[in-house]
Amino acid sequence: MEFNKIIESINTDFKEGLLPIGEEAPTDHIQVSPEDWGELAGFLRENDSLKFDSLMCLTGIDEGTEEENLGVIYSLHSMIHRHKLEVRITVPKSRPVVPSVEQIWRIADWFEREIYDMFGITFEGHRDLRRILLPEDWEGYPLRKDYIFPESWHGIEVPKMKEGWE
Amino acid sequence: MGVEHDHELGVIHAEEMVLNVGPQHPSTHGVLRLKVQTDGEIITKIDPYIGYLHRCFEKHCENVTYEQCIPYIDRCDYIASMNNDFGYAVTVEQLMGIEIPEKVEYIRVIVAELNRIASHLLAIGTIGLDVGAFTPFLYCFRDRERILDLFEMLCGARLLYNYIWVGGVSHDFPVGWVEKTYEFIDYFEPKIHEYNELLTYNKIFIERTADVGILPVDVAISYGVTGPNLRGSGLRWDLRRDDLYSIYDQFEFDIPVGTGAMGSVGDCWDRYYVRVREMEESAKIVRQALDQMPREGDVHATIPRKIRPPKGQIYKRTESPRGDLGFYIISDGSPIPFRIKLRSPAFTAVSCINEIARGWMLSDVMVILGSLDIVLGEIDR
């Protein structure tokens, strides 16, 4: 199914006027609010004509120091219909909460834990949200743009990044 | 068989025990720690703990230029560096809109498929080791050595190549390389028969792997399991055909899937055998590519002087030996990537281990883990 058709299908079958249509609307992804996402995810997974049964990738981003926003990008794919969809959600740094889709796509369990680990985005409804790659007592979220590198960790000195190179 | 055990021992409940496997354990293929909860000898839950090899490569990439990312990407899946670089180069090229010469495409396909053979040789050798067969491992490494020699001749490195660059490759093939590669393929194709006799159809090996750790196809898709593990579950899904990149449409090759020949579809034996069959197919692709490859041409012709992709973002996935290797790259128009996300196929494979190992014996965990063919460098990144 083509991108326009997918948008149409969401607007008619899920919620009237959820996604903007027109020249200014994005042509390669959809932007939804965290409030809508929980239900929309279930709809995308279950609807017979969409059937996004595979979550290819879950990317977290920090949009930079100016906007103070964090984002989550869901790359969805349908193994049956062979179409793709990119869903973006933006949340403010002051309250980074996104509903969890861990029970809809099982892989989201680990993907969400990774984003929680790296960006500090909390996934509401996740049954086992804890750090995955970093130690449990690590402070801060490394992939945020304003992350300050620690001087040491448990007495282990962290070498300064550029000193050895330049 | 797991279900049968449940029935037999259904009334007996021993005290639950927690057993720690790893992080330093030869069968975990790296530094992976498994917290295994067992009831007697039967597993009730596995909780993998990863991150022992974490170096936050994604953060490193935000501090270096696009060219300088490639050595880091080499080190993610250190068994199949060529395929990693291939995926990265294809993604950045698509973001920049670079068309690369035909000769470069052929060289890339040849090295990527050779690396796939090398990676699968390691996978089938180590699953043999996990069940106690030492000899096939040595046979596999003997042949893997020849591929590494070819790579050494090509670019000087044996493991971490930094060979495939954005827009081209680092070296043209040296004199005599094509002949040597032909020689290797001629030598290698009959050897697959030898592995089959040694390991694939070995009675003990079949007993240990067939009907063990069955991964149903819907669970596999939900867990994002891809590559040979998904094909082992019987789904004919290969990005080289289904989400075409590079020039894979110019070659004829089969996509082997698990058929449940020794037990049920999606068991460890199927996942293992898919890899053996894939080596045959990769050898076929290498031979066709060598036949068709243009011998003249400059491999540096389209390498950009400065890699500065336009503002935008892209998600692109390619078929690495372990499955869908995806790159999500966001560019802000500067020579330094704003964000690079690597979607690792081994990461998704290890996340489903609780699902498929539950109900099996403790000794089966190592076989299941071996059949998933994980590389910790890529899981932890």
What does this entry look like structurally?
The complex is a heterodimer of chains A (166) and B (381). In chain A, α3 links the parallel β5 and β6 (122-124). Chain A has one domain (3-157): NADH:ubiquinone oxidoreductase Nqo5 subunit (Beta Polymerase, domain 2), CATH 3.30.460.80. Chain A has helices at residues 3-14, 34-46, 108-119, and strands at residues 30-32, 54-62, 69-77, 84-92, 97-99, 122-124, 152-153, 156-157. Chain A is of the alpha/beta class and 166 residues long. The mean pLDDT of chain A is 82. The N and C termini of chain A lie far apart (52 Å). In chain A, the strands form 3 sheets. Chain A has a 4-stranded mixed beta sheet. Chain B is of the alpha+beta class and 381 residues long. Chain B has one domain: Cytochrome-c3 Hydrogenase, chain B (Orthogonal Bundle), CATH 1.10.645. Chain B is built from 16 helices and 10 strands. Chain B has helices spanning 2-8, 57-61, 66-74, 81-96, 102-130, 135-155, 177-200, 203-209, 217-222, 228-232, 239-242, 268-292, 345-351, 353-357, 362-372, 376-380, and strands at residues 16-21, 24-25, 30-31, 33-39, 42-49, 164-165, 168-169, 312-320, 323-331, 339-343. In chain B, the strands form 4 sheets. A 3-stranded antiparallel beta sheet of chain B has the order 1-4-5. A 3-stranded antiparallel beta sheet of chain B has the order 8-9-10. A two-stranded antiparallel ribbon of chain B has the order 2-3. In chain B, β6 and β7 form a beta hairpin. Chain B is globular and about 70 Å long. The model of chain B has no long low-confidence stretch (mean pLDDT 86). The chains are: A alpha/beta (166), B alpha+beta (381). At the A-B interface, β2 and α3 of A face α9, β9, β10 and α13 of B.
Annotate the secondary structure layout.
The complex is a heterodimer of chains A (166) and B (381).
Chain A lengths: L2 H12 L15 E3 L1 H13 L7 E9 L6 E9 L6 E9 L4 E3 L8 H12 L2 E3 L27 E2 L2 E2 L9
Chain B lengths: L1 H7 L7 E6 L2 E2 L4 E2 L1 E7 L2 E8 L7 H5 L4 H9 L6 H16 L5 H29 L4 H21 L8 E2 L2 E2 L7 H24 L2 H7 L7 H6 L5 H5 L6 H4 L25 H25 L19 E9 L2 E9 L7 E5 L1 H7 L1 H5 L4 H11 L3 H5 L1
Antiparallel strand pairs in B: 1-4, 2-3, 4-5, 6-7, 8-9, 9-10
